[in-house]
Design goal:
alpha/beta; 8-stranded mixed sheet; 35 helices; binds adenosine-5'-diphosphate; binds magnesium ion
Length: about 900
């Protein structure tokens, strides 16, 4: 007989290695249980049960239900209490927990198992009626919100009304009669919203709660979070059912959260907050402003020292900074959660280096501990020190997430999102943030909240995103409806500029300018380790000497993509370029090109000098020409005058160049087929520049000339012949010879499919994954935004293929091109130069394909260096 599948594990049966099955929270609760920490007992329903729920059309199978109730009977025995008992009921929490933590995405229900009758028994048994009724009202509130989706705000409104009637400010000032009033009104609200009485049967409460956790895996907030964090939709969440412990039993009880090191800076030492006489999320929800953990030493010294010892034990056991939740019930300490704490990039780097110093981890492990994407936070500018001194300080609050941000004030997530989409720099100002605000928070440069501590929703989420955040600004009066806030007597309106320093918690008036960041200290150390372990080179995409300098400073080992068209946009150059485009004859065009040659040559000289001997791939003119054409009548008239043409003639010419689908029109190497003189000029500029710099600086320069948009070998050969002919001629003229290479972008699917043929004429391939994605999917980057959201909703696509490489389709073309190309030409040098070159998961894929380098924008170079090291280490560990 086949044994039934196991869908439920008690905390004794799991361990930290079982995250995929038990979720992070469940696996760590089991690990802590086995380490002997004080954990309220419980069991975990697996992530597979969640997947099964979705497969069965959102139903929990009988087998799973049976196992849940069998485990519940076991839990009753462990506690010596019965679930649903009228005089001494076992109460539980129902907690979600996916493989990786998704803060604020899935909600927890506490005190489950209470009803109108058992609350009386509970009050008697605990001899604490206020506490019993407080627990019941909290349960009704959470169950209604999480399971039945009755908006939280409606309950909060009732609480506010009752507090106002009574003339008190805090929940703790409400007595047992107020709690009973709340319960009555909450139940009435429930009935009005749902059309049924609040469920009294504990078994029903439990199963509905479990289903709600499963459902919450698929709520829109969770979907957005997953997309932002590369989490696949089919992982599912586990559910933990755990015996309740109570921090709301009076002055010897409380609840808190703490880190073993500072999550903002990495500094050693316990760092956290707690609230006396409180339950669950009170600390993070900003209901009252919490106390620093050091205060616990005064309040309850015994609990404090036990906590410190156990926190230390956990950190040593996990060999990483821990983020812990605890509750104290009448002087007895319980741990409710531990996990490797989320941290800012600065903290991640400092902690990783400290742990290596402390002998806890190796440099290789240290590299794997840092989220490559998060380095972005450190590469962003900080406030200009002079400007900052002159800045007007308008307030101080908690430095919740570091960074410097300046922008226009907006008051709702929606407005923030729209303003950012319109190109504004945005500061989101809120009373407090909630998970619904996530997209607005993402769009904002900085976040300012009136309520909430260092562990509030705003602070945790902002740190995770690397967004600057200042929280808990008590003086801030936010009037969301009027779209204004008041701070220290001044009123600021939507659209006014303010600046935030998330490292000090200072709020400034106006738009304070910023300066570039630097790689030094521990950051420099991590980068050196990364360079030791990585196998791929990291180049950058740059078109100016200044960008090149910057990229070299950030560690770029060359330029993977120099887009020559960007060199023609400057005011002085564009009229000459337009004259070239609108020329009627080859002679005219050559004359216009001759005027452009010196500019282009000087740019290349500047870049070769900035590179100091590092290689550079120069891509020839690529975009549809009409992008350069004059748009307004005035511009056309000016151009007509300068060319000695009539306005009508210029206008007609511009119109004649109109294309229905310019992205698939006359562009890329097609331009060189029609106008070979363009490639002639560009080849001359590159070779002359290389010779000039080589003569002057004695750098070893091997120019790499890249032909864009090749789809056919003969097309590449045609352009290559022009390049070779010109290069030879220039070298002869100069009496100076150097080696050079000719290669191609792989960005048309046909080029990938026929890569063996194309490789016959190419020294190198560079995957232009922006166009390759566009051409493979058949939709354009600029238009996809309009419909991709619906695709995410329908789960057709989970990620934006323009920011995360589509490994299945586009990746297959790349793999094929590398294999076929190298088979034909073993010396073929391969790289990637699309935006994906700086995306860590795409970098890992490139390593797997065996590419020689990745190339990304200057600011992402350190990210790519770390990601490449991680990819190499992971690949080695897999073997
Ligand atoms: P999240 O994943 O959002 O942090 P949790 O499941 O950790 O959600 O729970 C939310 C809050 O409820 C936490 O503060 C936690 O400490 C508290 N909590 C959860 N289970 C219990 C329990 N059995 N007893 C007391 N408090 C609990
Ligand atoms: Mg939560
Ligand atoms: Mg938690």
């Amino acid at each position: 007989m086949a044994t039934a599948k196991k869908w439920v594990y008690t905390f004794y049966e799991g361990n930290a290695q079982m995250k995929e099955l038990l979720g992070g929270k469940g696996a760590n609760l089991a690990e802590m249980t086995n380490l002997g920490l004080p954990i309220p007992m419980g069991f975990t329903i697996t992530t597979e049960a969640c997947t099964d729920y979705y497969k069965s059309g959102r139903k929990i199978s009988n087998e799973i239900q049976q196992q849940i109730f069998t485990s519940l009977r076991w839990l009753e025995k462990e506690n010596g209490k019965k679930f649903g008992d009228n005089s001494d009921p076992l109460l539980v929490s129902v907690r979600s927990g996916a493989r990786v933590s998704m803060p604020g995405m899935m909600d927890t229900i506490l005190n489950l198992g209470l009803n109108d009758i058992s609350v009386k028994g509970f009050a008697q048994k605990t001899n604490n009626p206020r506490f019993a009724y407080d627990s019941y009202r909290r349960f009704i509130q959470m169950f209604s919100d999480v399971v039945m989706e009755v908006p939280k705000s409606k309950f909060e409104k009732i609480i506010d009304e009752i507090k106002e009637q009574k003339g008190v400010k805090f929940d703790i000032d409400l007595d047992v009669n107020d709690m009973k009033k709340l319960i009555k009104r909450f139940k009435a609200l429930y009935k009005e919203a749902i059309g049924e009485e609040f469920p009294q049967d504990p078994d029903t409460q439990l199963m509905e709660a479990v289903k709600a956790v499963f459902r919450s895996w698929d709520n829109p907030r969770a979907i957005v979070y997953r997309r932002m964090n590369d989490i696949p939709g089919d992982w599912g969440t586990a559910v933990n059912i755990q015996t309740m412990v109570f921090g709301n039993m009076g002055n010897t009880s409380g609840t808190g959260v703490a880190f073993t090191r500072n999550p903002a800076t990495g500094a050693k030492g316990i760092y956290g907050e707690y609230l006396i006489d409180a339950q669950g999320e009170d600390v993070v929800a900003g209901v009252r402003t919490p106390q620093p953990i050091s205060k616990l030493e005064e309040d309850m010294p015994g609990c404090y020292s036990e906590f410190i010892n156990l926190a230390h034990k956990l950190e040593t056991h996990y060999r990483d900074m821990q983020d812990m939740e605890f509750t104290i019930q009448e002087g007895k300490l319980y741990f409710l959660q531990t996990r490797n704490g989320k941290r800012t990039a600065e903290a991640a780097i400092n902690i990783a280096c400290d742990l290596v110093d402390e002998g806890m981890i190796t440099p290789e492990e240290a590299l794997l501990r840092i989220e490559a994407k998060s380095l972005d936070q450190l590469l962003h500018p900080t406030f200009d020190a002079e400007a900052l001194k002159a800045g007007k300080v308008i307030g101080h609050a908690l430095p919740a997430s570091p960074g410097s941000a300046a922008g226009k004030v907006y008051f709702t997530a929606e407005d923030a999102k729209n303003a950012a989409a319109a190109g504004e720099r945005v500061i989101l100002v809120r009373l407090e943030t909630s998970p619904e605000d996530i997209e607005g928070m993402h769009a904002a440069e900085g976040i300012l909240t009136a309520r909430g501590g260092m562990t509030s929703h705003a602070a945790v989420v902002a740190r995770g995103m690397g967004t600057c955040c200042v929280s808990g600004c008590n003086d801030l009066k936010v009037k969301e409806e009027e779209k204004e806030f008041e701070l220290n007597g001044t009123v600021y309106h939507e659209g006014d500029y303010i600046s935030l320093d998330g490292s000090t918690g200072t709020i400034y008036e106006g738009d304070i300018p910023t300066v570039e960041a630097e790689i030094s200290g521990n950051f420099g150390c991590i980068m050196r380790w990364a360079d030791q372990f990585r196998k791929m080179k990291v180049r950058t995409n740059a078109d100016t000497p200044a960008d090149t300098e910057n990229a070299v400073r950030l560690g770029a080992e060359g330029i993977g993509l120099c887009r020559t068209e960007h060199m023609f946009f400057e005011a002085e150059r564009i009229p000459k370029f337009r004259r070239m485009i609108l020329s009627d004859t080859v002679e005219q065009r050559e004359a216009a090109l001759a005027e452009l040659l010196p500019y282009q040559r000087e740019d290349f000289i500047g870049m070769y000098k900035a590179l100091r001997g590092r290689p550079m791939t120069v891509r020839f003119l690529d975009p549809p020409l009409h992008e350069f054409l004059p748009k307004t009548e005035a511009e056309m008239r000016e151009l007509a005058d300068s060319m000695g043409l009539t306005y009508e003639k210029v206008k007609a010419h511009c119109e004649a160049m109109h294309e229905f689908n310019p992205m698939m029109g006359l562009r890329g190497c097609r331009l060189s087929v029609i106008y070979p003189e363009i490639s002639r000029m560009q080849t001359r500029a590159v070779i002359e520049a290389a010779i000039a710099v080589k003569k002057e600086m004695n750098y070893d320069i091997v120019p790499e000339i890249m032909v864009p948009l090749t789809g056919e070998r003969k097309e590449l050969l045609f352009v290559k012949n022009i390049i070779v002919e010109t290069a030879e001629q220039v070298m002869k003229e100069q009496g100076y010879f150097l080696n050079y290479q000719v290669g191609t972008m792989i960005e048309i699917p046909r080029a990938a499919l026929t890569a063996d043929d194309v490789a016959k004429e190419a020294d190198f391939f560079s995957f232009g994954t922006n166009d390759l994605t566009q051409m493979t999917f058949g939709f354009s980057r600029d238009d996809a935004g309009k419909f991709l959201d619906s695709y995410y909703e329908q789960k057709i696509y989970e990620f934006d293929p323009f920011s995360k490489l589509d490994q299945t389709g586009v990746g297959l073309l790349m793999r094929m091109a590398v294999q076929k190309g190298r088979k034909e030409n073993p010396m073929l040098h391969c790289g990637i130069c699309g935006e994906h070159g700086g995306d860590p998961s795409s970098v890992a894929f490139c390593q797997e394909l065996g590419l020689d380098y990745v190339s990304c924008s200057p600011f992402r170079v350190p990210i790519a260096r770390l990601a490449a090291a991680q990819a190499a280490i992971n690949l080695k560990n897999k073997k």
